[in-house]
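Data follows
____________
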Amino acid sequence: MRTDGGTIASEEAHPLRSATLCSEAGRVMSIDSMKSESLVNASLSVRSQGRGASLSYLGAMAASFVVAYMPTYVKLANGPWQTEQEGHGPLIMLAAAWLAWQQRDKLQAVAFRPAPVAGWTVLLSSLFLMAVTRSQDILMIEVATQIPVLLGCLLLIGGWPLARIFAFPLAFLVFSLPPPGWVMDAFTVPLKAWISDIVTNFLYALDYPIAQNGVMIMIGPYELMVKDACSGMNSIFALSAIGIFYVHEFVRNDWSRKLILVASIIPITILANFFRVLALVLGSYYLGVDRVEGLFHDLTGIALFVFALMLFFFLDSVLIGANYVLGRAFRTLRAASKAA
């Protein structure tokens, strides 16, 4: 505008300039946000690719593990897994695999931090021990080495965070180990003698013509020997595995209930085994030894295990009911104290 012979710069251009500046600032902010968003997407893509590579690495290691331990599994299938004592071995391994599969959702949240030094140390030393024990036919240690071998693989892939996720499935594999004969003898012989003594005293109190000499029981015209299968050791191993599996999966935050259930496994097994030996002795007395051997003996073994499981679950039901009653009584007392 022109006034009194002078020129005054118009101020109307300033809003325009300011709008232009705002537009440029907005464009700059938009570019920065696009850059940051692209960086985030790139980092997520790299992380997902790294996780995918780690999982592929895990699959390759799993296949290598199966190939390395296939001779061990063939040896187990031709030997211990065909016996009553170790017949539950394949089920334990399948249960451990199922437990590991149940942890798959946790893999999305864990940060993979490989521990190569610890991983290679554990893996190579375990493989060396496996090779030595396989050459010397020490089956228990050969089977046991699969646990640290798997641990070493987990450390190489994801480090200790990944190993902690699979800690319980790895520890559960302990129940698949075939114990050496000297360990079984150390527990089996005293258990057989003790069960024989209890059954003999019980039937003698009921006026049965019965006597005992170690693990030999004489009743009427028959003489019976309590075998290793009647000691209860087989059932103790199997029921321990089932009990700990049940406690881990279905008893979450009640530690008193967990401790009671785990501590009850051996007493329940011994009680069930007492009834098995009692049934065999009475069956021999009334039916004859020939009819008790064979099918009847095997059926009592199955009945023993079923009875032990029923006792275990019954005890758990009692504990649940007791917790409910005690909790309700506690709430009633607390409400009464507040009202007073």
Summary: Confidence is low (pLDDT under 50) at residues 1-48. The radius of gyration is 34 Å. The first strand starts at residue 2 and ends at 3. Residues 58-173 form one domain.
